[in-house]
Specification:
This protein has a single domain, classed as Jelly Rolls (Sandwich), CATH 2.60.120. Helix content is about 5%, strand content about 60%. The protein has one helix and nine strands; from the N terminus they run E-E-E-E-E-E-E-E-E-H. It has a five-stranded antiparallel β-sheet with strand order 1-2-9-4-7. Strands 3-8-5-6 form a four-stranded antiparallel β-sheet, with no helix packed on it. The N terminus is likely disordered.
Length: about 100
């Protein structure tokens, strides 16, 4: 079952314009889903602190699993890479999203 509820916690902290930290936290016993629009001018770093999550791409036709203590880097200058994330029960993932312009400055 897939659902969003009050126990699934997601937040965004702005460090400065073009530099954001995202927190996805599922402290439930069920799978939850988080979706965020991210355009192609950003590079993404995601770190799984606890549990595991599945990043879905191409409307779910491709899935990349990130397990505890592992990470993923996402960047494609030719197309947007929105976050479509299935959080397994008891999972915490931290994302750092930074504009390419800021990354190179």
């Amino acid at each position: 079952m897939l659902k969003n509820n009050d126990e699934s916690n997601a937040s965004r902290m702005t460090i400065e314009e073009g530099f954001y930290v995202l927190r996805f936290q599922n402290d439930t016993d069920e799978v939850t889903r988080e979706v965020r629009e991210i355009n192609s001018s950003f590079i993404q770093f995601h770190f799984c602190m606890k549990g595991q999550g599945d990043f879905l791409f191409n409307t779910g036709n491709y899935v990349f699993n990130v397990k505890e203590e592992h990470s993923i880097l996402l960047y494609n200058p030719q197309r947007d890479l929105p976050i479509d994330l299935k959080l397994q029960p008891n999972t915490w993932i931290i994302g750092v999203v930074i504009s390419i312009k800021k990354f190179h400055s």
